[in-house]
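Exercise: predict the fold of this chain.
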Amino acid sequence: MTRARRWLVASAVLALLLALLAYWASRPQYVSKLVLSQIGDALGLEITASDKSQYSLEGGPRLVLHDVVARAPGAPRPLLRAGRVDVAVPWTTVRSGGKQLDFKRVELDAPVLDLPMLQAWLASRPASEQTTPTLSDGLQVRDGRVLGDGWSLDALRFDVPRVLPDKSIDARVAGRYVAAGTRVPFDLSLTMVKPANDAGVGVHGTATLEQDDLRIPATIRASGPLHVGEEIRIAPLRMSVAARYVQGDTDLPFAFALNGPLRIADGAVALSPAGIAVRGKGVVPQLDARAAFAYKNQAALHIDGVLATWPEAWPALPPPIGASASPLPVVLDYAGPFDFSSIARLQLTRDDTRFDGRFKLPDVLAWIDATDASPLPPLSGRITTPTLDIAGAILEGVDVRLHEPALDTAAP
């Protein structure tokens, strides 16, 4: 082949490539379908978008997609919907046919993530294919939602500067947890050791539990290895909380720490068994205990521990009970709304004295704060003690029954 002919063939091929490039650039919907098909094949997902797409090659391929839907084949619902997805990728991702999931930057507007569908898809993927994409210029999410079973995360804002293999990840996330009358707005900073399952995660920031007139604003620090699969798990979770219990005229500052396995699955949150410690002033006791906690629409709590002392802000105990310096073993069981408005069962022991009763926390707090309250607290139960000193009168073999009509409902 003569040199002139080779130049002619090369020029024709180049012209054809430029023509194809111009054709693709003028029809971004075709390009978007091709790229989404490649990425979908690599992830085992069916990914579609509307025809209102934009496409550019400046600085590398970039797609702006609208009305994006990602679904596992045969799944009853999409695992992801998004109003807009802006994706910038390097040429290496395009040349790999979507098998190499390297991205420059991803932006999502109004995404809705179905967590049960996501967990089902993750569980169906071979471990070798659960590759974490890289994001050299980061990820941004605005007005997002995560849908769980009976709960959701709303108004999500998520910013990640970068995600690179074996490198730590820093992120900022804010939003609002909503479930059955409970709201928890939060604003948190997250750090992950590396982008992999079971890697260590650290969290610090603020969150406020809100229920009717109850508020518990808190500053939180937590850490542990994060696993996302059929369940979300941090085991063990180590958490410290500085918070206030605010309801009506009650404003109680307290500190709280725990260590135990956290699991989230099927819309339920469980923490069991856990070691906990509570510290505070006033009516807040100093407590160290083992605990079990679960929440799905309602809370369930079991605590078995020791009160170091009887708080001075609590009603004084008569001697010899009040004169004793012995710690007080305590068992607490509760099932009901998060504001502790349902009946709780409490067992207290000091030396040979025992109390076994029922109470509602808001009623007891109101009784403590009241200036003209009844001399007897709003409790139902039984107190037994060998001796009791009341105004100098020594009573022996004491067995006292307390009855509060509002607590006639069967104890949990």
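Check your answer against the key: Confidence is low (pLDDT under 50) at residues 15-26.
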